[in-house]
Amino acid sequence: NAEAIRSFSLQGKSEHWGVGAEAILFASARLNHVKELIAPNLKQGRWVISDRFHDSTRAYQGLTGGVDETLITALEELALDGHQPDLTIILDMDPAKAFERVAKRDEEHGIGSVPDRFEKENLDWHMKLREGFLEIAKNNSKRCVVISAAMDENKLANAIWKAVQKKFSIGNVKNPS
Fold first, then answer.
1. How high is the mean pLDDT of the chain?
2. pLDDT value for 136
3. Residue pair 78/23 in contact by the 8 Å Cβ criterion
4. Which of 33, 74, 126, 136 is the most exposed place for a label (fewest CB within 10 A)?
5. Alpha-carbon 164 to chain mean position
6. For every residue of the chain, which 3-state class applies, written as one string?
7. CB 116, CB 11: distance < 8 Å
């Protein structure tokens, strides 16, 4: 299933196959996710919220990994199976600050998280990834909204909810968080 493929890749087990193979694996996982979860829920008239959807492959394997644009586009078309997100929220934060936040969180909770396949990459790589996501947002401004993730949790939740309200013309409905 989708989570098994994603876990396999995040553990770095596909890394030696190269970024092209990773892109194909993530597209396979995404297609499974679309067919098993997203499409049936949309068919029932439900909203679907998903994190790290098709833009992630474009940013991680395409813009940072160097996988050819034509292959990335073909994999997106395959994985989406005719579906497109109505809204993509990109949470933006300076990668150095994000690493500090994760370290502080881990320290506060007494845990030592093991970096996954992508978290272990260096700061320059993460800066390039950030630029990639911001480029995606710029090129897809009708769908993408960039929100600073540097604010506290409550302010961030409210900013996200306001973006959802604006996109879907939802009146003054209270933030469901």
1. 86
2. 95
3. no
4. 74
5. 17
6. CHHHHHHHHHCCCCHHHCHHHHHHHHHHHHHHHHHHHHHHHHHCCCCCCCCCCHHHHHHHHHHHCCCCHHHHHHHHHHHHCCCCCCCEEEEECCHHHHHHHHHHHHHHCCCCCCCCCCCCCCHHHHHHHHHHHHHHHHHCCCCEEEEECCCCHHHHHHHHHHHHHHHCCCCCCCCCC
7. yes
Contact 30, 81 (CB under 8 A): no
Q: What angle do CA 3, 81, 141 make, to 5 degrees?
A: 95
| Residue listed under structure tokens 């209270």 | 174
Scan for tokens 């098994």, then name that residue.
4
Write out the two tokens for 45.
Answer: 């008239």
Q: Is 57 left (phi over 0), alpha (psi -120 to 50) or beta?
A: alpha
Over residues 14-39, the pLDDT tens digits come to 677 888 888 888 898 899 999 999 99
